[in-house]
Amino acid sequence: MPATKFTPSIASRPVYGGLKSHGAVPALMLANGPGGEALLELIKADPSVLPHTYMIYIPEGCDLGRSLEACGPASFFEAASYASILPRFRKLLADAGMNTRLYLAGTEGLIGQATSEALAAGMLLEAIDAEHRGSVARRMQCVHCKGITENVTTDPFTCSHCGLTLFVRDHYSRRHAAFQGVCVDAETPGEIPPRQEIKA
Amino acid sequence: MSTEMLRVTEIEALSPLVKRFRFEHPRGAKLPLFSGGAHVVVEMPDGDVLRRNAYSLISDPQDGSGYEIAVRREDGGRGGSRFMHACVRQGDMLRISAPLNLFSLDMRARKHVLIAGGIGITPILAQMRQLLRMQGRFEVHYAARARSEAAGLRLLPRLPHIHAHISDEGNRIDLGAILDRQPIGTHVYTCGPEGLITAVAQCAERLGWPRGSLHSEVFLAPPPGRSFEVTLARSGRTITVGPHQSLLEALEEAQVEIDWSCRGGACGRCETEVVSCHGRIEHHDHWLSEDEHSSQAKIMPCVSRFRGKELIINR
Fold first, then answer.
1. Which residues of B touch A127 (CB under 8 A)?
2. 3-state class (DSSP) for residue B225
3. Which UniProt keywords apply (chain A) (predicted)?
4. ipTM strictly over 0.85?
5. Where is average pLDDT lowest: A18-22, A159-163, A181-185, B240-244?
6. Where in chain A is the domain with CATH 3.40.50.80?
7. Does A24 touch chain B (CB under 8 A)?
8. Which of B101, B100, B102, B104 has the alpha carbon at shortest distance from B187?
């Protein structure tokens, strides 16, 4: 699957520059689903990124773990979800040095959450490479109950926490790594527009 | 720019070439607080010449009872530091600008590494005092040729994370050792000679550091040069810039209104458009980009000069 292309219409949405090798410096690589392909392409383009790399892969149905491990990073770890690798990722960031590079590939939700984690640890944005691969599903924050609903593919959608029907706003928060969802029938309760698929 | 007449309340020799000056409000009023790395501009009425030099504040940013600066006597300079050393006495009144910071700490940092060379210790002193108050995580590395020249030594507390590197004693600063293995979230602040700032940048790049974690400040004294003429497009007047005068000073002498702040090629406030240039602008600033320098479409009057037939600026 090639890198996901967005229409440039959403001003607040980050633009992901793609993965480019920064050479044989210590690196953390984190990918989910088809994002594994972006890592494989990066390694193929410059195998020198590998010897000092700690790689984490979340398959989410893609079977790329074995090929990634076979490349021979310094360390490889596969896990079921971002939530389950978060303590490990935080420890890796805490132990990282100023020359550490972060390579992120996969869904926008993964890139956004890992980026904000790395920034909080003191990493600079310019030390982070990201490439969006896979679904255009959005990670949404309900502005009313503040709950996060993952993998939203329709507009409007139902908040998985408070049950309100939420309109998908084109307003991305880097801090929350999520788009904003606002109650769609606040003025006229029950009057809900038909659901549409989110295409970008 | 807001200024205030302040009284010189203390003068102390920190080394044979460096003196510390303390300024206080004549009626004991509190002065505005500042942040580590800030500077003030001191006005020096020296005969019929009014000099203005920027000096970094070295006192505690949270202490409004006075401002302190340290001045190194530059015998080859244009006379500002000589005036401070030879003519200023305790009790004198001098006009001092409000503090302005072009070299502040990045508060997102998890750790701060402060590197100073020679008199470049001055802004680092105030940054250090701010970090001590904040209980921030930091290191200071102060490089000097000889202990007798290291004016900052007396102002640095004896703490395990404050290091003096005296090259005469075989303890030359080792930037590789300082920068290697620093944790993420480290920001580096360098003040000192250009060579030190370049060396830190090159070392950091070699180690793979992101550029945004590096901060530096060089204040330039306006370099002297040959006398030159400048035509002012708005009035059609032509003024002469003397060999020991900056273009900014010549404009001020000619009563041309011009905004300024650092007077050292760093802040960008006095940036001036060039209408026509037959010759070569000698750019000395750190403000304009290389492309802007080569296009000769802008000039920083505080430090840059001109050599050639004709220079017309939009003033």
1. 184, 210
2. coil
3. 2Fe-2S, Flavoprotein, Iron, Iron-sulfur, Metal-binding, Oxidoreductase
4. no
5. B240-244
6. 27-132
7. no
8. B104
Q: What is the pLDDT of residues A129-141, one digit of tens each?
A: 999 998 889 999 9
> Of A99, A101, A125, which is closest to B207 when you measure between CB atoms?
A99
Angle at A49 between CA A17 and CA B205, to 5 degrees: 75
Residue with tokens 């940036």: B271
pLDDT tens-place string over residues B262-302: 888 888 999 999 999 999 999 999 899 999 999 999 999 99
**Does the B3-101 domain belong in CATH 2.40.30.10?**
yes
Beta bridge partners of B230: B239
Size of interface A-B (CB pairs under 8 A): 49
Residues of chain B with CATH 3.10.20.30: 228-313
Tell me if the bond preceding A156 is cis, omega within 30° of 0.
yes
Identify the CATH class of A27-132: alpha beta
Residues of B in contact with A122 (CB under 8 A): 108-111, 183-186
| CATH code reported for the domain at B111-217 | 3.40.50.80
Q: Distance between CA A78 and CA A58 in Å, rounded?
A: 6
0.90 surpassed by pTM: no
Question: CA B187, CA B182: separation in Å to the nearest integer?
Answer: 9
Chain B residues near residue A20 by CB distance under 8 angstroms? none
Residues of chain B with CATH 2.40.30.10: 3-101
Mean pLDDT confidence for B204-226: 89
